[in-house]
Design brief:
single chain, about 400 residues, alpha/beta, Rossmann fold, Coagulation Factor XIII, Chain A, domain 1, 6-stranded mixed β-sheet, 5-stranded mixed β-sheet, about 30% helix, elongated
Length: about 400
């Protein structure tokens, strides 16, 4: 049975440059606004009891989508079908009155979520116990920190026993102890067969909670698949965007200032651009360089994962007594026989260092290396495929 069905959902906001433009639009019956497309033809469905992670950049449309699913915002077009009671933790403080005490807000917020006064009284103690706010329960909400507001909001939202729970990044302001407590509660919900939509910038938490994920970019669904694949694609996209900007800045500085030695090209297995290999395949990194001033230099090569973890790095000085010299163009290759990396995407970083190895003449983040593992290794975890053997006594 489907818990949520979304068909060609779109949301367009109207931006008026002046307040009078609203009146002119009514009088003259023609548009005086600038349309801003927040969502465009979003379609997906969720089975009852499933958990979906929503990821993407700020401004991608994630919060707009979740507000529509929660019923606090109407779509411009499209169809939305929701089966069951929905509880949502969206904007900080939504559904609260900051002049009321925490206890009074329990009754206010829970009633907005559809509970009767008797039902709220039955669950009041459990809500207070989970929130762990102590004497603050009888103090005005305006005296609470943002983390305390989240404690109360999450406790109420998960205590009304919803069929569908929507969480939009609000947990990021809580302390680590309460974040763990919330995650345990959501795992408990998932095990009870509740439907959960979880939006977060924490890819680890998305992978922990959600078997599947959807990446929203520019108001559309860019990718929807198994969570680990979608989060990896998103992180790689973020890394590429960052490194491309850095590379442009480096190249800009290189053009404005004549470098004594610079990288011309980096080839992976004699190819320019992204390549894919299998675990235990050979890899050759070829660096083409040009020296215009006579300066001794070293070459360093590193493997960087999408989360910026340096998986491996080596400097030519480790295996050569003297630095490279000589005007003109040159080429050097670094060979890795039977590369032991497990599946994943890695950026190859090449740097030209001065003789002291402290100053960087030129650096380049080259194309992405994708490592594929055979299906027989699907139970392998970690970063490396090491040689090993089992010994039974």
């Amino acid at each position: 049975m489907k818990a949520i069905e979304v068909k060609n959902l779109s949301k367009v906001y109207k931006f008026y440059h002046r307040p009078v433009d609203r009146l002119k639009e009514i009088v003259f019956r023609r548009p005086f606004h600038q349309p801003i497309q927040s969502l465009e033809n979003i379609s997906f469905s969720m089975d009852k009891g499933s958990t979906l992670g929503i990821i993407g950049d700020n401004g991608a449309g994630k919060s707009t989508l979740l507000k529509i699913l929660a019923g606090t915002l109407s779509p411009t077009s499209g169809e939305l079908i929701v089966h069951g009671r929905v509880a949502a933790l969206l904007e900080l403080g939504a559904g609260f009155h900051f002049e009321f005490t925490g206890r009074q807000n329990i009754f206010l917020n829970a009633s907005l979520l559809g509970l009767s006064q008797n039902e709220i009284k039955e669950r009041e103690d459990a809500i207070i116990e989970f929130a762990e706010l102590g004497d603050f329960m009888d103090r005005p909400l305006k005296t609470y920190s943002s983390g305390m507001v989240v404690r109360l909001a999450f406790s109420i939202a998960t205590s009304v026993d919803p069929d569908i729970l929507i969480i939009d990044e609000a947990l990021s302001v809580g302390d680590q102890y309460f974040q763990k407590k919330c995650i345990d509660r959501m795992l408990e919900f998932r095990n009870k067969g509740k439907t959960i939509l979880f939006c977060s910038h924490a890819m680890y938490t998305v992978n922990l909670l959600c078997p599947d994920a959807m990446w929203i970019h520019g108001g559309t669904v860019r990718e929807s698949d198994v969570a680990t694949r979608v989060t990896a694609s998103y992180e790689n996209w973020c890394r590429k965007r960052s490194t491309e900007g850095e590379a442009q800045a480096i190249e800009g500085r290189a053009k404005n200032k004549l470098l004594p030695v610079r990288i011309l090209n980096v080839l992976l297995n004699n190819q320019a651009g992204d390549i894919s290999i299998s675990s235990r395949d050979d890899l050759t990194v070829t660096i083409e360089y040009e020296m215009v001033q006579e300066v001794p230099f070293w070459i360093a090569v590193g493997f960087k994962r999408s989360d910026e973890l340096i998986c491996h790095a080596v400097n030519l000085s480790r295996d050569r007594a003297e630095p490279l010299k000589g005007l003109g163009r040159g080429e050097i290759s670094l060979k890795y026989p039977r590369l032991p990396l497990l599946h994943g995407e890695f950026g190859i970083v090449v740097s030209l260092l001065d003789e002291s190895k402290y100053h960087v003449y030129h650096r380049r983040d080259s194309a992405t290396l994708t490592v594929l593992s055979p299906e027989a290794w699907e139970d392998e975890m970690g970063l490396l495929e090491l040689e090993y053997g089992w010994i039974e006594e």
